[in-house]
Amino acid sequence: MPGFDPARITIPCAHFLHGRQVRGGAGLAVTRPADGQVYAELPVADDACVDEAVASARQAFFHADWARRAPRERARLMRRWADLTEADIDYLAALEALGSTRPIDQARAWDVPYTAEGIRFFAEFADKHGGEVAATAHNRLGMQIAEPLGVVGAIAPWNFPLSMTCWKVAPALAAGNTVVLKPSEMTPFTAVRLAELAIEAGIPPGVFNVIQGDGATTGDALCRHPDVAKITFTGSTVTGRHIMGACAETGPKPVTLELGGKSPQVVFGDIPDIERTAATLAGAITGNAGQVCVAGSRLLIERSLLEPMIKRLNAHFEMLEPGLTWASGSRFSPIISETQANRIESVVARALEAGAELIEGGSRFETSLGGCFYRPTILRVDNSDNPAVKEEIFGPVLSVQAFDDEEEALALAEHEVYGLAAGVHTADIGRALRAVRRLSAGTVWVNRYGRSNDYILPTGGYKRSGIGRDLGRAAFEANLHHKSVLIDLDT
Ligand code: NAD
């Protein structure tokens, strides 16, 4: 698969309202992560623009009949939208690779097809859940009718721009809501293209709107808007707290919050195939250069395996080289921004000061590419108070702690703040299931690490990793409320 020339890609540098691109004034410079070049000026939606977007979504909800349309018709339009998304792979994958940390080969092999499949997955729910009939006295009929909420405000992060858009928008639309999405100001453009494709598929104007801007201006105004019925958010725990506050002050309105993580990978000495586990562990911390909410960033390993596993991890890490995200063959992602690279450096420096031992990496790659690339890094740590263990780094930095028995392993796995995901690697099914019961995490993977591509299992956090669930039936249901109806039959 050849790479592409960034100069030839048209940038949809606009909001998307009333079914068309709406260009605003200059606002924020948008930078390509791989080479650090500014390639667009992003309009920033102010209160008036947010108001217009919400009015567009409200109009579509009440008057364009999206909510009242036959559910199968909604499903049919969404399936067409998924087909058009897949057919647009050349442009969508290039736009994603240009402006985000996603290498072009991965954007083509995963991000675009996974997004299309997500739209299909949620479309299938549209006509599968109408409500329930209650067990009332025989002379009455009691029902719970499932209804859409209205205008859903969606706020997305930068790490997987296309698929995060799909996670937020597809279940909301399938349930009959209309949406105003604010993508991250660092990766704002593929959402606009997805919204255009929705129009081409026949989804009415105003059903899916995109507003551009930063969190403090545009995101906050969206959360506080009185006509927004719900906010669904993915991003950091700190921002999630702000959003919940804004929704409480101006509602209260319901929230789904998918937040940060610091996920453990617990490896016991009985694993049958150390090479296979090493490949899993390496992928879980270097995929998207560790800029993944469920990155397996804390390795807890039985002492007997410590040295052999570190040797194998190093071998995997050494194969990764920086590359432009638009060059064919690039596998290793840049760090999203200079600010984020500085943050990684700061946590690593504090970790070393606090006694961590640097085993591998610990610095940026020296390259002439222009973007920031951070070396896959291993920090050996003995103390769980070390910043490398406590803080979400959002980079390719793995802390490693050794344990001597199961009890110690599971105690170390517990994190005081985060509970997003965990991995357990063992040949002993009883031990695996004890760990599943014990670990405080929204998802536990056994002898694997990472979600399946089928959307079926919900994802979300325990503790301060979040509230509510994305994916699965749960994500669809989170976009509905239920009306109780009781009818006397004897009148
Ligand atoms: P972030 O919290 O900085 O920003 C996320 C979004 O929120 C952006 O669109 C931003 O503009 C907006 N925002 C910022 N301040 C806001 C405010 N006051 N009001 C409204 N909106 C505001 O997060 P990020 O750096 O884009 O993404 C990385 C974080 O996302 C990590 O913590 C990661 O763990 C988390 N994440 C979680 C999941 C999950 O499923 N749990 C998935 C991906 C990323």
UniProtKB/TrEMBL annotation:
<protein>
    <submittedName>
        <fullName>Aldehyde dehydrogenase</fullName>
    </submittedName>
</protein>
<comment type="similarity">
    <text>Belongs to the aldehyde dehydrogenase family.</text>
</comment>
<feature type="domain" description="Aldehyde dehydrogenase">
    <location>
        <begin position="28"/>
        <end position="485"/>
    </location>
</feature>
<dbReference type="InterPro" id="IPR016163">
    <property type="entry name" value="Ald_DH_C"/>
</dbReference>
<feature type="active site">
    <location>
        <position position="258"/>
    </location>
</feature>
<dbReference type="GO" id="GO:0004030">
    <property type="term" value="F:aldehyde dehydrogenase [NAD(P)+] activity"/>
</dbReference>
<dbReference type="InterPro" id="IPR015590">
    <property type="entry name" value="Aldehyde_DH_dom"/>
</dbReference>
<dbReference type="InterPro" id="IPR016162">
    <property type="entry name" value="Ald_DH_N"/>
</dbReference>
<dbReference type="InterPro" id="IPR029510">
    <property type="entry name" value="Ald_DH_CS_GLU"/>
</dbReference>
<dbReference type="Pfam" id="PF00171">
    <property type="entry name" value="Aldedh"/>
</dbReference>
<keyword id="KW-0560">Oxidoreductase</keyword>
<dbReference type="InterPro" id="IPR016161">
    <property type="entry name" value="Ald_DH/histidinol_DH"/>
</dbReference>
